Amino acid sequence: MSVTRIAWMALVALAWVGMVSSAEAQIGSEWTSVHQYEPTDERFTVELRIGAYRPSLEPAFTNAFGGDLGPLLALELDVHLFRIPYVGPLAIGGSIGWVEWNGAASTAGGTANVGSTGMSLLPMALLAVLRVDVLARELDIPFVLTGKFGPDFGYYQTGVTGRTDAEGWSVGLRWAAQIALELDFLEQRAAHRLDAEWGINHSLIFFELYGSTMGQMGGNMLPLGTDLAWSLGLQLTF
Q1: Is residue 28 domain-shared with residue 115, that is, in the same domain?
Q2: Are residues 207 and 99 in the same domain?
Q3: Separation between Cα atoms, residue 155 and residue 166, nearest integer Å
Q4: N or C, which end of the chain is more exposed by having fewer CB within 10 Å?
Q5: How many Å apart are CA 204 and CA 143, to the nearest integer?
Q6: 179 CB-near residues (< 8 Å, 6+ apart)
Q7: Residue 185, H or E segment
């Protein structure tokens, strides 16, 4: 066997060893980043949502706005107080939203249209929030269940063709039940980078059912709560 041939074989062997070592190092680095990752502390959660909302002001609401469902746009911020072991974080939160309904205004006898009628509502709530994330944290099942309860407030305005005819506040209580899918499992290394660089511990998409007794607690308040409404959106935990 010639010296040249031996040299070429040695170079090929060295190149192969280098490739294998590089691959092993990359796999080891990826395994470490996924399995030895230390998350930052979870301090608060932000939710952006959209959903359908129809108040329990019947039959006046249907007569004025038909099947208009909004939509309702809302933002919620929950500040984590402490974590219950093997359950999840307990938080106190606040939410604010906006929804508007429109319909055709008519004469008292309903014989002719006289413009458009509208109503806007700014719903706000203070909430006690319990997020049960033990499935995601302990069992690698990427679902988080959440319960919420607290006082509900709403400021409304209503009028015809740009004129405000009535406005005021309604108060009550709100409850909510939510299920969220944690998206970290789709690309764990990207999720870890979001945490390290932006402080985003987890990102989720959620679906929520809720109800409200806003305006149904007596007095002269307009009943703007709802027996059941829904929303969906994006949730980020920091």
Answers
A1: no
A2: yes
A3: 11
A4: N
A5: 9
A6: 143, 144, 145, 146, 206, 207, 208
A7: none
In this structure, the strands spanning 163-182 and 202-212 are antiparallel
- Strands 88-106 and 72-84, sheet pairing: antiparallel
Determine the length of the chain.
238
One domain, residues 48 and 19: no
Asked if residue 91 lies in contact with residue 126, where contact means CB atoms within 8 angstroms, the answer is no
pLDDT band, very low/low/confident/very high, at 28 (cuts 50, 70, 90): very low
Residue 155 dihedral angles phi and psi, to the nearest 5°? -105, 125
Q: How many domains does the chain have?
A: 2
Q: Are 165 and 74 in the same domain?
A: yes
**Phi, psi angle pair for 20, to nearest 5°:** -65, -40
Range of the domain at 131: 40-237
Are both 105 and 209 inside the same structural domain?
Answer: yes
pLDDT tens for 171-186 read 999 999 999 999 998 8
